[in-house]
Amino acid sequence: MMLQSRLIPLLLMLWSVSAFAIEVRYIDATQSTPLIDYHMNTSLPDALPDGVVIEGAGAVKRAWLVFPTRRYDHAILGDDIEAAGIRVELATGEQLTFTLPEGSVFEDRYPRLVDLDNDGIEEIVLVRSYLDRGAALAVLKINNAGIELLAESTPIGLAHRWLNPVGAGDFDQDGQQELAVVITPHIGGVLTLYKVEGNRLQPIYQMPGFSNHRIGSRELGQSAIVDVNDDGVPDMAVPAVGFHELRLISIINGALKEINRVAHSSPIRTALEVRDLDGDGDQDLTYGLADGRQVELLLP
């Protein structure tokens, strides 16, 4: 009997802090729906050549990185061109610009819009890298005076050290959103959750053993925020170092815990996309492997 290789469903039950089943389907990429392409360049004035325009649904209509510069020679995202500023177009049509001083750049490809203070206006989250101290996570706020720095994490401490955001969510259900990142994803990445405290981003949870970026890649989306066990609380899906395993992480009893893990014979290669794959109204995950297969994780 010939094995049907186009679609091979596999039911995977893993037991950890809380047990739940994940159906893992491997699909020949030639037979699957392509993942969304976020790698569109923009021809807007002053735009970063490989930047992505992010569209908002509230006060911010769209935002993008501007003022390309070669003053930081890290090239972790494929070239040595980074951004010295960001431009925001409001729903009113007004445009605002924020420019960094000479000692730092936005070592990023796109801003992330998150309403962290629940005032109805999205804050802007970006990776800011200092020429002598490496990367920090920065939060910018829009107000009547324009755009200003609201809060920032402590830089990693060395030049050419970087971090890659995972996303935002109220992971510990305290009523305040946290910002999740992987610090140094290329050298023993540490999943870190920050909370805004005054003008600082303070690390409140940490866990080692993750990577959500490859050196020289423009793909920043190799992790995702998703409710993996259908309990109404956001969780984090982040590859382990080496990309052969996807670790599903939640906050349990005041600490980061791995609640499930999915292993693959081929490393994860693409972005993680959150979709309802089976039409049941719940979130699922899909991503591509280096061997050409696309993975569909049907979550509870």
Automatic annotation (TrEMBL):
<feature type="signal peptide">
    <location>
        <begin position="1"/>
        <end position="21"/>
    </location>
</feature>
<keyword id="KW-0732">Signal</keyword>
<dbReference type="InterPro" id="IPR028994">
    <property type="entry name" value="Integrin_alpha_N"/>
</dbReference>
<protein>
    <submittedName>
        <fullName>VCBS repeat-containing protein</fullName>
    </submittedName>
</protein>
<dbReference type="Pfam" id="PF13517">
    <property type="entry name" value="FG-GAP_3"/>
</dbReference>
<dbReference type="InterPro" id="IPR013517">
    <property type="entry name" value="FG-GAP"/>
</dbReference>
